[in-house]
Prior knowledge:
The structure is a single chain. By secondary structure, the chain is of the alpha/beta class. The protein folds into two domains: 18-46 and 157-336, Rossmann fold, CATH 3.40.50; 48-155, Rossmann fold (3-Layer(aba) Sandwich). It has helices at residues 22-28, 47-61, 76-88, 106-113, 123-143, 158-177, 193-205, 221-239, 266-279, 288-300, 318-322, 329-337, and strands at residues 18-20, 31-36, 66-72, 91-97, 117-121, 148-151, 184-189, 211-216, 251-253, 309-314. A six-stranded mixed sheet has the order 1-2-10-7-8-9, with helices on both faces. A four-stranded parallel sheet has the order 5-4-3-6, sandwiched between helices. Strand 3 (66-72), helix 3 and strand 4 (91-97) form a beta-alpha-beta unit. Helix 2 (47-61) crosses helix 3 (76-88), helix 6 (158-177) packs across helix 7 and helix 7 crosses helix 8 (221-239). It is globular, with a radius of gyration of 20 Å. It starts with 17 loop residues before the first strand and ends in a 5-residue tail after the last helix. It binds pyridoxal-5'-phosphate (PLP). Residues 46-47, 76-77, 154, 156, 188-195, 284, 287-288, 315-317 line the site of pyridoxal-5'-phosphate. The site of pyridoxal-5'-phosphate has 20 residues, from helix 3, strand 7 and helix 7.
Amino acid sequence: MLMNFPKRLRLAQLPTPLEYAERLSNALGVRLYFKRDDLTGSVLSGNKVRKLEFALAEALREKAQVIITAGGVQSNHCRATALACARMGLECHLILRGAPPRLPNGNLLLDLLAGARFSFFPREIYSTRRPEIVTDLVERYARDGKHAYFIPVGASNAIGSVGYVQAFQEIIGQAERAGIKIDHIVTAVGSGGTLAGLLAGKLLAKRRRPEIWGVNVCDDAPTFVQEVRRILEEMNDRFRTRFRTEQVAVNILDGYVGPGYALAYPEEIDSIINLARLEGLVLDPVYTGKAFHGLLREIAAGRFRKGETICFVHTGGVFGLMAQVEEFRDYWRENLGRKAKR
Ligand SMILES: Cc1ncc(COP(=O)(O)O)c(C=O)c1O
């Protein structure tokens, strides 16, 4: 099954490295690689950049002057969109869920620096009235003679997910050149596009392996099985891919959301700290921290067999970490109390 890739912009530093984590692998008894999609750029970083290469190319084809998108106040996707728009000379308008904070930090500070405009909406209104909010905004820009292009949350639609079809091919190509046989690919799932793209890549390649897994960081498994199938269906409509969506197995590792979206929990924070100390790799509490913690738990529970090769997609998110310093208060206190070793 072939797919004609739509045109893309060049925004990401690709290919990103595929790095072996030796100490961690030895400790876990599996061979663990990190696909460093946190390195797609310095501030324009993370998984969203791959999606934006395709979404913004389409916006430019449609002669858009303004890009509208939506997300939480600390959305990585909104930050990546704001910076990519600045780079492409486009205006950016962000519809954000929540109240404006007294001062911006983390991703929001970068949105501000990139010159994005903001509309904040309380959680309830954001969740129930987003389509009208978007339509209103698009019409407002039209009245000013500007064409506005809307990118849905996380750029998790058919066009955005093509970024991860291509990432799948990149991973397989790198692994084959290095003589590595990857058994499993694991990623965080927030809006579904990354997982859908990887899965589409595997289906197009007609491969049995690697098995693709998503760890949801919000909602639950049935929600994302449905959402991923919806994106694959949209790909069928747009790119004639002919996926038999109802029969596609969507593997979601549920159970690691904790108290809720963007709310961290102590075991997850411990996993983030341990990885940083062991491998010098930094995760975030909202996405990669939960996904990686889930992966560790699943390895311990025997889901992945000893000696298997697992590729964890590091989807970025470091600016979300900077916005959650409170979560590290105990660790900081412990360290201040630690006596210097003689
Ligand atoms: C750092 C990071 N990792 C993973 C994800 C999840 O990707 P997706 O929205 O494609 O499921 C997101 C965004 O939601 C993200 O910002």
